[in-house]
Amino acid sequence: MVCIYVNYQILKCNKRVCISVLLARFDFTQGILERLDAGEIVIGDGGFVFALEKRGYVKAGPWTPEAAAEYPEAVRQLHREFLRAGSNVMQTFTFYASDDKLENRGHTQRFTGQQINEAACDLAREVANEGDALVAGGVSQTPSYLSCKSENDVKAIFKKQIDVFVKKNVDFLIAEYFEHVEEAEWAVQVLKTTGKPVAATLCIGPEGDLNKVSPGDCAVRLVKAGAQIVGVNCHFDPETCVKTVKMMKAGVEKAGLKAHYMTQPLAFHTPDCNCQGFIDLPEFPFSLEPRILTRWDMQKYAREAYNAGIHYIGGCCGFEPYHTRALAEELAPERGFLPAGSEKHGNWGSGLEMHTKPWVRARARRDYWEKLKPASGRPFCPSMAMPDGWGVTKGHADLMQQKEATSQEQLKALFNKETARC
Q: Which residues are listed for Zn(2+) binding in this entry (predicted)?
């Protein structure tokens, strides 16, 4: 394998010994629970929706994953980049791939939900087979739940997606990006019927879900519903997400239950967010770049997550492959190897030793990058923003969804409400 050869070069160990150690460490037949039970660190992948939007393959607004069927080469390439960066999980690009979301608010589709889900499974499996990676099929929150549809109606939507995941024999399932623990419970209950391992992540912070259910209580409910791995994803930065998972872990342990823990945060700093997370920031979604975390921020996140007892460590919106590589590099001492992508990246900037300019060569050291406070280059911009915080959730008229396109009258009402708030 390429990664074995790369590790031989980087670790400067005897090639034969290095290969035997790596092959002994990784049994490619092990599933997600076997790996976590054995104490392994699992590196997740990154934020496909944001990454592919920037590359021109996803439309901001609906954020739907038809690119899996429409532009498979783009999705395949991004999977490969995350694999090379160190990801152990190829998550199917099926975020918001439920039929009710695909046809929400006038969004016309050339592909059915089934076609998108099947294509996404095939791409994830193809790339996973190129390395030591598992395939995870994912479902997420639905417009039907926000519109107060029944439990049976919402569960039927999840069932339609998991039928594809079972057919394609993904390795495990993830219920991700849920703002309400109730809907996440429903998803977990459906996913458990497959007999496959189930992970569940909420897009919440320390304040809990949008009904103010605490992180600890949310985690207990998810474990009781059948999730073996629980945690958070999206909406908040790594520091906030690790803090939240610590609260979940404490709740589970207090209840006398057991689980594995995962976190897949944003790659954006969000110290000014309220309970709704980054979607309330005025910069969302097109001006978030000044908030992006550096690779060194990611190394700090990886270490803090691991020290907190979180062994499934990945990313969500804003995460690019170099961020994932930073996670893998920080935890290389515990994992025993580096990712293939480290072949082109010197540890803590050591590659700068070859730079032509002496002042840049002087930056080839860890303490320089750890102590640096990056400038934004924006002299008239604030360091933090005032989140919108409309305070609406499931059942509110503004959150009732529809198949028809948003009308001009509806938009005018929203514009007026926003103006009145300013």
A: 234, 316-317
